[in-house]
Design a protein that fits this description.
The protein is α/β, with parallel strands linked by helices and 289 residues long. It folds into two domains: 7-87, Winged helix-like DNA-binding domain superfamily/Winged helix DNA-binding domain (Arc Repressor Mutant, subunit A, Orthogonal Bundle), CATH 1.10.10.10; 93-289, D-Maltodextrin-Binding Protein, domain 2, CATH 3.40.190. Helices cover 44% and strands 22% of the residues. It is built from ten helices and eleven strands. The strands form three sheets. Strands 3, 4, 5, 6, 9, 10 and 11 form a seven-stranded mixed sheet that branches. The radius of gyration is 26 Å and the shape is elongated. The two termini are 50 Å apart.
Amino acid sequence: MRNDLDMALVRAFLTVVEAGGVTRAAAALGVSQAAASQQIRRLEEALDCRLFERVGRRLVLAPAGERLLALARRLLAMNDEVWSSMRTPSFEGEVRLGVPYDIVGSFVPAVLRGFAKAQPRVRVSLVCEDSKIVREALKSGGVDLALTTETDCGRHGETLRTDRLVWVGGPGGDAHLKDPLPVSLGAPSCVFRPVAIEALGKVRRDWRAVCEVSRMEPVHAVLEAGLAVAPLLRSSVPARFEILGRDSRLPPLPEFRINLYAPPGLSPAARDLAEHVRAGFSGARSSTG
C-alpha cells in the first residue's frame, strides 16, 4: 500500500517552522489557529512521529522534525515547480527583444534563462543597440519589446528601476587625474554621452575622447588598460573596475531609468517575456537593495 503525503500538511509544517509558532503560521496560511494545529497533528499521525516539542512557552523542532525539515523544503519546492510549470501556458513563435549595450550583460542573461526554461518552444531574438535606436526599432516594428536606459519614461513605458550614472576607471588607475580628461563616451547615439559632456562642461573640465563606441568590450578594454574613464550605470559596473568617488575631481552624474516598453497588441509569448523581465528586475532590486 502506497502512502502519499498531503502537500497542504507539509506546507503547514514549514510555515510553523518559519513563523516560529502556530499562531503566526495560521495568519500566514489564512486559517484559524485550531486548523493549523490540526494540520500539524494530521502530519504527525501520517508519519507516526512527533514533529514539535514545547520548551517553556516556545515550540521547537523534535528530532524527527529536524530530519523532516530539509526533505520538506525540497518536496515543497518541487511541488511548486511542477505546479507552476504545468499551469503556465505553452507558447510558440518568436519574440524580438531590444536591449541597450549597457545593461545587456548585467540583467538580461538571467531573464532569458528563466524564460527559455518556462517557454522552450519560443525563440528570442536579441537586438542590441543604443537606447535611442532600440526605441526607433520598437516604433518601426523591428522589435516587439524594448528595454532602455533613459532620464525619463515615454508612452507605453514603465520604469523597472532607477540607477545612478557613475564615473568608472581601472583598478588603481590615474586616468581621472589627467588633463585633458581621457573619456570613453560611447557612440553619438549613446544617451550617456551628452549627459557626461554637459556635466564636464559645467565644471570646466577639459576632456578628449578615447573610445567612441557603445559596445562594452572596447569600453572595458580601455578602462582595464587605464587609458580612460567612462560613465556607466552603477549596477552594470563589473567588479574588476572602480567606481570613482568625489575625490576624483569628476562631476556628479544624474540618475537614469531602466524602462520596459511593452506596447498594446503583443503576442501571448511577448507578454509572457515581458512578465519575466519585470520579475527579473524585481528580483535584482530586492537582492541589491
